[in-house]
Queue: 3 jobs
Job 1
Amino acid sequence: MTTIKAPGDWYYDRSGALGSKSTLVHLTTPMSINPGNEINVICDAPIKIELPSGEHLYMSAGTATALKAPVKMYLSPTSNLGPDFARGWNSLPDELKVMVLQRSLVRRDGYVRCHDESPARPLGDVLRQHLAMTPDIARLAHDVFYSRNLFSIRGSHIPKIPPLNARHVIRRIRLVVKLTTDGWNLVQSVNSGGFTSLKWIYVMFTWDGLFRRNRTSLQNLPSRSEGTAFMCSAKFCYRKDPDKYTRILLTSQGLDTNQVQTHIERLITFGTS
């Protein structure tokens, strides 16, 4: 057995792998292993193993090799698929192809963070590997990745938004913004940013930043005429309660959190799609 130091003990082991009860996988396309799961893998080419942290290594698995990890691992072969795979793939209906691609391209335990690339990097790498395969796989992989994942957009000085050529496919967004002018501008940018297939959006406002850079009053917040209307269904909330400093500033201007919340909630309307 060979042990590699990483976040937790993850290993590959060629001793007696065929004798275990784990699933035997002949790796030909990228896949992931969830924490606590174990598989036996065979691959005709070296395999790249990557952790959510970005740490990775390459290993050979010409014979059955056991893989186990306490954290999620991403596996991808390093060779071309070959003509036999292409003929077999092309013979499948699109419904089956989508089911296959979802196993490695859809994050089922959370969301893809647009504002922080490192946690999503392994999944992004898997997408790039699929885009470099056949034209048919690239087309379907692009649509599966962007239409089946939940994308989180967080307000910042220069917020990161999914690429323009993918926005028309995205169906679900988690939007976290501050109660500031920049935050409100981001809400409006998402609404008018080409997300034409959006079915659901989760808008979360945070109190940090409110009244801090300038002593804004309720009158300086967006007016009713600056409201925005989403055509999709939504969930709307505030992240945590305002801290003591924010409450003092609100009180000094004769305001309370309910007044601000009521004002903001009147500015956003949602559909039922």
Job 2
Amino acid sequence: MLEIDPSDAAVADFTFSTNITLSLPDLLVGIHDLTLNLSNEVSVITFSVTVDIREPIQDITIAISIVVEEGKDPVPALEFNGNLVLPALVPIMFTPSAGKGIPSYWGLFDENDQEMNMTETKDQSLYYMFSDDAIRNITVKAYAEAEGWVAADSLLIFQVTNKIQGLSVTDFNIITPAVST
């Protein structure tokens, strides 16, 4: 909406407003300072505007790592029988990126589309520590002011498992001979 007389300074008994749509197909992605000149037979008005043109966010990919020890490099997540398996009670690092577009920040969402974690900038990774054994369906989303939340094309589906406890292994004296008396 472009208001021609937003401060009601017109002397006549009328106001004028209209919707204007501008198409700028030749502007490249980036920030542009534009000057908009509007005129009719009796007046001219000039507006300075800044336009931020961005590509739509597309091709979101996520690298998943396990933070084994704080301060050390995380290790890549591994697959077991073709399925991604992540440990419970250990920080998991999700590092998203977009093939096109520039997100402002990233979010990690659970099966019910509830926010689990969010970054403050586009250059940060997401961290989360799962507390229970479960098959998880997680969505990573990018946020851009012009688009809102944009979800990755596919869910992250993986098994979260706790540490093995109470395991006992015996070789039935095949490898270790029984003590003879």
Job 3
Amino acid sequence: MLSSASSHWRAIATRSFARPYRRPSNRRWLRVENEHAARRPSSSRHAQFYSDLVPAMIPVALLGSAVYVGLHLLQTYLSHEKYLDEARARIEELEREIDALLPERGKKTEPGAIATKDPEHAAGSWLRWLKRG
């Protein structure tokens, strides 16, 4: 039984691959190609228009895209520079304000006294948790 099944599959395999594909003779092949070309309609006016226009528009589209990306990068760069200038001006203004307030702070504290926070009342102190319990 086993040998008959294997011989069956061997016969199928040899039958399917026994005859390689043969291309038709050149004369017949050319005749078929000419018949297909004769049946094919000529290209329409719209197809001709777009086949002429689209290849010519590709460089224009690439150039337009390159100009757009370049101008967008320039705008982004200039916007960032403006933001940095405004930030530097604000920092200088705050530094002047700090310089003006430091002498006033020194006058409020007694000379020689060190300004420290009481550890019991500090916001991040862990001692206040022990005092509650």
